[in-house]
Amino acid sequence: MNTPVDAHLSQDHRHLLVAASLGSKLGLRPIGPLAALELDDASCAPVIEREVDNTRYFIANRRIPLDGATNFRDAGGRRTENGDLVEWRTHYRSENLVKLTSRDWELVEALGIDMILDLRHGDESGLAPSKAPSSISIVQIPIVGNLAGHVDATSALLDGKIDRIDDDAMRSMYLDLVAQHGQDLLTAFELYRDHDHPVLVHCTAGKDRTGIVVALWQLSQGVSPREVLEDYRLSSLYRTLPRFLTLRPDLLAAHVNPRNIHSYISTQNESLAAALEALDLNSVLRR
């Protein structure tokens, strides 16, 4: 049986930290709730294989540690419904890349990524362009979502045009993405699925447009819907708090209660499910 394990990479890149219970199975000495698996060489993206009692563990850090992005992560490493493992280190997802440092781009190149799918529309990409090295091609597939009557919901909040974004508004936006850009989403999915080298897809937050494309790819690989939603929810873990802390002072200055935007900056399972249903999932996966 193949079992993927999401681990945390130590700051010095020399250890993968796993739960103590797994560490005990692997013969590691637990230190409190964790155990450390020593790496032969420092790496930003190690994948370690261990076998215990007929179970093969594939241990990797899902989130790639970059200075300029908190939500840059591996979309693979998921177990399929028939027990296989979707390969690690071939398909990545992220928020916008405008803050990536020179060191970050070196790490991206080291991952073997040679194509980036940018799902942002013109204003987004124009204000925050990706400065990728020449070895990486950027394919732009502009996808625009209408949220609460606005293309740029963040500006609408800070300009006082709206004062809240709830679950219903997010679900409507996801359905609008499918209605207005269904073919663009499918194009992005097919490019993401069929590229022969490691590939990255991103939008601004890395959770909505990107979330739909990655979900389609994971489902096409046989990953269970439950695991797809688990992966989708990681954007709330990696992106929501940093984004909230960034926006909070400006929201307060605009007299917007920060609690009113929780649905906007976090993931919504029902919204993703509605978008996938609207795309006629069974037909898409037969493509």
From TrEMBL:
The gene is iphP2. The keyword Lipid metabolism does not apply. This is Tyrosine-protein phosphatase. Coiled coil: none annotated. Its EC number is 3.1.3.48. PROSITE patterns: TYR_PHOSPHATASE_1, TYR_PHOSPHATASE_2. InterPro entries: Prot-tyrosine_phosphatase-like, Tyr/Ser_Pase_IphP-type, Tyr_Pase_AS, Tyr_Pase_dom. Residues 183-233 form the Tyrosine specific protein phosphatases domain. GO terms for molecular function: protein tyrosine phosphatase activity. It comes from Ferrimicrobium acidiphilum DSM 19497. It is an enzyme of class 3 (hydrolase). Keywords: Hydrolase. Belongs to the protein-tyrosine phosphatase family.
